[in-house]
Every structure is written in C-alpha cells, then in structure tokens.
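Reminder to self: tokens first, then the designed residues, so the page reads top to bottom the way the pipeline ran.
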C-alpha cells in the first residue's frame, strides 16, 4: 500500500514539473507597428507606400496603405525600427528610432507635406 502511494506522489511530482517546463503559448515575443498616413488637410492617403526597416537587422517590409489610409505591420521582432511613407505629390516622411517591445503596438502616424516643384 505504501509503495502505491509513493508511486502516485512521484507521478504527480513528475507531471507537475513537466507542466511547468512547457512553453507558455499565451505569451508573444513580437509586436506591431501601425499608423495612418494623412495629407496636410488631415484627409487620409490611400495607396501611400510605407516602408518599415528593422535598424538592427536591416530587413525591410513594404505595404501600401489601405483605403482608410492605414498600415499595420504585425508579428515584428523586438527591436528598433524606422518607418518611411511616400506618395505622389508629397515629400517623403520618415520616423526613426521607434522602439518595439514584446506584446506592444506602436503607433506611427504620418502627416505628409506637399513636395516642392
């Protein structure tokens, strides 16, 4: 009887240690950078080209803004980023030094200015 009880206790202890060593699937090590691109009057700019650069690795991602003028880069590695927006007839806008931490969403709205002739 004593050995059965000891075996159960040992089994429960081993099972508990295995459960504690499993990775936590609810936690993420990534984040996102999003924003809205607008013209000088505050109207959104659909189709603007947005480029995201991870400063540490040099990797680049590009997308066009949605019909609502928004962009959203998801599942990004933790690090420092720059965002650049370009649209025909407007000067290029850039934000640098955006620090992204795990489980964080950074907003990088861009206000475009009219380009010179």
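Designed residues (117 positions):
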């Amino acid at each position: 009887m004593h050995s059965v009880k000891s075996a159960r206790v040992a089994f429960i202890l081993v099972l508990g240690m295995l459960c504690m060593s499993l990775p936590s699937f609810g936690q993420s090590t990534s984040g996102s950078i999003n924003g809205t691109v607008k013209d000088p009057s505050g109207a959104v700019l659909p189709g603007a080209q947005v480029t995201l650069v991870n400063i540490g690795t040099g990797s680049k991602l590009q997308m066009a803004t949605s019909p609502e003028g928004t962009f959203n880069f998801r599942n990004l590695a933790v690090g420092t980023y720059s965002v650049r927006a370009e649209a025909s007839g407007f000067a290029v806008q850039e934000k640098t030094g955006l620090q992204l931490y795990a489980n964080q969403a950074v907003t990088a709205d861009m206000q475009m200015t009219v380009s010179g002739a």
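Residues 2-21 form the longest helix (20 residues).
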